[in-house]
Every structure is written in structure tokens, then in C-alpha cells.
């Protein structure tokens, strides 16, 4: 499993980097470019809800990058006008014929963290000083299931477990909650309500798992969460539209950044 590390920046440097990244995404956005022309997708590979049962189509980081990078008009594209990144899922295998992984019953259009220098899947230690995913988004169409759609998550390294550390859910009522697994074998998530943000309203979330502590913020309001018996397994970030039900869902992204 490939890995990567970054020199720990000062707080001031970190803030400056975040401000610069946000500016480069939102102020200079080009609606005529593929998503890779507006977002730094060197940290990500893409999984789509198409392909073969148990083996959905994956797009490499290298193929995603640049103004002429990969896009799909049905699932992953730049919105005309404001240039936001759109990720769509048509529903479930039974309602829409979409494709899932071998370990899931649900379809997704989702980015998975990779090593930006090689494009290979990577992971990091939750005991490190900085592991943070920061996202600005708008849920424009939410699945009508109880939990709705997973819009961000931390997943345990694939060599350790097929389960997530935590999943951030958004449903059609605007309820945002997080489910944290109690053990690496999974199937025993503990759910915590975080906020309510109406469908069609832009908001931000941050997921941080550093120094052995898991925190999630909605619009800057942080919640510290118990990680039970997980014992800080090597992990990686995912962000996108991981639909938990059978109706269509659409997420509109304005910025995505990751820090280590």
C-alpha cells in the first residue's frame, strides 16, 4: 500500500494554503473545463456507478486532471454557469440498474484518496498531527431513504478492513448525521446528529482524524466523536455521492481540499 507524507506547516501557513486553494477553485473557475481543470484532483481517483457487478468503473487520478480531463455527462461533470463539480447517482441497482462494489449494496460516484506523486491508493495514520478533509458543497437532490447519501467518509485501509471509520450522511429532510463504526469488523455504527441544512443550501464540512481524535464540523461547528475499539487504523478519505437508497441524488461541489 503506497503512502505519502507532508511536512507539518505552521498554523499561519496552513491557513494561507487553504485560502489560496479556495481562491483558485472558486474565483478562477472555468465552466467550460472538465472538473479536473477547476479542482486539484491529483489527490483522488474516481469510482462510478457503471461497469460490471462487483467491479464498477474506476478513473485514475492522471485521467481526471486538467481542463480536458475525464468527465461523464450523466455522473461526473462541470455545471454550466457556476462551474461547480456535479456528482450524480441514478438510484439503486434495483431501481436504476447501477453497479456497486463487491462489499456494498449501494451505488456511488465518489472520489477516493490516492498518493498525488504516484496516483496509487494510499492511507495515513490517524495518530499523525494533521489529517483533514474540507469541503464546500450543496445537496441539490437528496435520496429519500432514512440516511440519504454519504457525502464524505474516512475508510479503513483496505488491507485492514472493508469498513469505514465514519460516514457523513445527508438526507432529503436536510438532516446531517455521522455514523462511526465501533469495531473494525463493522456493522455496528453509532449515529450522531450534527445539524440540519435545507436542500439547496450551500454549506461546509470538515472531517479531521489526527492525534488519535476524530472530529467533524458543519459550518465551522466541531463535534468530537468516540472511536470506540477502532484503535486508530490506517485510513483514507473519500468524498462524493454514495447513495444509500433507491431514488436519484445529486451533489454540487465548490471546493475540496485535503491536508496531511
UniProtKB/TrEMBL annotation:
Pfam family, one: Alginate_lyase2
Signal peptide: 1-27
MF terms (GO), sorted A to Z: lyase activity
Keywords tagged on the record: Lyase, Signal
Residue span, Alginate lyase domain: 39-260
Tree of life domain: Eukaryota
InterPro entries: Alginate_lyase_2 (IPR014895), ConA-like_dom_sf (IPR013320)
Protein name: Alginate lyase 2
Originating organism: Rhodocollybia butyracea
